Amino acid sequence: MNSVHDVPIADATPAAETHAHHGYITDKEKYLNRLKRIEGQARGIHKMVDDEKYCIDILTQISALTSALEAVAVGLLDDHLRHCVVDAARLGGPEADAKITEATQAIARLVR
Amino acid sequence: MNSVHDVPIADATPAAETHAHHGYITDKEKYLNRLKRIEGQARGIHKMVDDEKYCIDILTQISALTSALEAVAVGLLDDHLRHCVVDAARLGGPEADAKITEATQAIARLVR
Amino acid sequence: MNSVHDVPIADATPAAETHAHHGYITDKEKYLNRLKRIEGQARGIHKMVDDEKYCIDILTQISALTSALEAVAVGLLDDHLRHCVVDAARLGGPEADAKITEATQAIARLVR
Amino acid sequence: MNSVHDVPIADATPAAETHAHHGYITDKEKYLNRLKRIEGQARGIHKMVDDEKYCIDILTQISALTSALEAVAVGLLDDHLRHCVVDAARLGGPEADAKITEATQAIARLVR
After folding, report:
1. Span A6-25, mean pLDDT?
2. DSSP classification of residue A4
3. How far is B73 from C61, CA to CA, in rounded Å?
4. Are D68 and A69 in contact (CB under 8 A)?
5. DSSP codes of every residue in chain D
6. For chain D, which terminal residue's Cβ has fewer other Cβ atoms within 10 angstroms, N or C?
7. Tally of CA atoms within 13 A in the half-sphere of A81 that contains its CB
8. Nearest CA to B62 among D111, A38, D12, A11?
9. With contacts defined as CB-CB under 8 Å, which chain D residues touch C104?
10. CA distance linking residue C32 with residue C27, whole number of Å
11. By CA distance, what is D74's nearest residue in C?
12. B58-108 pLDDT tens trace
């Protein structure tokens, strides 16, 4: 991995710094690993189509990939509620309301 | 409607009282109306099967009903985040954590 | 139940008669029972909101109802593929193509 | 792309050959392009997490990727119904039934 995120974080805007608090970093490796696997799954599906594998087997892999993505989304949303939304709730006011509205809209897109 | 919820609320546990605050009641009629329509949609699908309507038309109605339910779920979840979760966040501690975990699990069930 | 569908079926258009073949009737009671339960679940959710039950418990019931509806939809789609689509496939021509397109569109609405 | 699928196809089992008929190949480039884009989207989400972008923006990209995958799945399913299932339907017998059961199970996994 060619990421140099430790350096940019030092220079980050206050907003990004707040966001990086509270163990978001702690779980980051877990998310990066899961997303690496997801990339591999996407590449595998491309290869299955290229190799003209049986449709149903390709569909099974797409379902597995979709589930993996949903699990990442739910995990990120949990982190988001636990940190950003809770922080905003403590501050209160319109900022808290806006954070909830934003989270609900993200949930609506995931639920569809 | 034969609900007598105003009386039981007076006797309710503190948790239930907290839950009834903050405009949850205000939107209640909207939810009740939407759920009445949803009941009607479910009854309509039953009748379509009983009348042996065309499968595809029945499936269209099932998709519409599922979307209506998802919209209610997202609305209730928004209310829940806005009231219960925000209240818990302000109190902080393990209670706040437990509320977020519970909300995330509900979201995971909706997203699947 | 006030259905008198046995009589209308006798008078039905040829299309409806074809549709009623092949065991569609056989499973009909199963679908009607499942849809009766689904109506009951919808009524139960209405009552939960009216009684101001805990949001998360209402969301759990909505997820259960959505799953029950999806199971009915998949079952009806299976019947549809097995009968209407297979019949059309045997006849061939643009009718077969149109049936597949129609089925795919119904699937797309279910998958979203 | 390092695929050498033209050669293996020449050696393919009869089942694979049947599967490659009927324009499945024609649309193949379209699927490969869409899946390349999907791989790029997955890589982009990995980078967003690595760069610690805002959670909600990552969730938006996950929703977009999930929708793109669902569109590919519905397209492949349409092809599958149109070719494999229609062919099996014409032959009839237990093979046709097995193909429908298999397709329904794939649909159930997509619908969840």
Report:
1. 41
2. -
3. 10
4. no
5. ----THHHHHT--HHHHHHHTTTHHHHHHHHHHHHHHHHHHHHHHHHHHHTT--HHHHHHHHHHHHHHHHHHHHHHHHHHIIIIIHHHHHH-HHHHHHHHHHHHHHHHHHH-
6. N
7. 30
8. D111
9. 74, 77-78, 81
10. 9
11. C108
12. 999 999 999 999 999 999 999 999 988 888 888 888 989 999 999 999 999
Enter the CATH code of domain C27-111.
Answer: 1.20.58.1000
Its pTM stands at: 0.81
Cβ proximity of B102 and B84 under 8 Å: no
Q: What is the ipTM of this complex?
A: 0.79
Distance CA B40, CA D44 (A): 44
Q: pLDDT: is D49 or A8 the higher one?
A: D49
Q: Which of A77, A79, A80, A87 should one mutate to test binding to chain B, selecting the residue with the greatest count of B CBs within 10 A?
A: A77
Closest C-alpha among C108, C109, A32, C53 to residue B12? C53
Note the pLDDT of residue B25.
53
Q: And the tokens for D36?
A: 């390349």
**More confident: C99 or B112:** C99
Cross-chain residue pair A109–D55, CB shorter than 8 Å: no
Q: How far is CA D27 from CA C82, D56, D79, in A?
A: 26, 35, 9
Copy the structure tokens of residue A55. 């449709």
Interface touch B49/C36, C-beta < 8 Å: no
Per-residue tokens: A38: 């997801």
pLDDT < 70 stretches in chain C: 1-26
Residue A92 — pLDDT band, cuts 50, 70, 90?
confident
The per-residue pLDDT for range A39-83, each reduced to its tens digit, is 999 999 999 999 999 999 999 999 999 999 999 999 999 999 998
Q: How far is CA C102 from CA A59, A106, C77, D31, D96, in A?
A: 20, 31, 11, 21, 20
How many CB atoms are closer than 10 A to CB D109?
18
Domain assignments of chain C as residue spans, ordered by start: 27-111
Contact predicate A61/A74, CB 8 Å: no
CB contact under 8 A, A19 and D102: no
Tokens of C53: 């039950």
Q: How many CA atoms lie within 13 A of D45 on its CB side?
A: 31
Q: How far is C93 from chain D (nearest CA, A)?
A: 11
Phi and psi, residue D111, nearest 5°: -75, -35
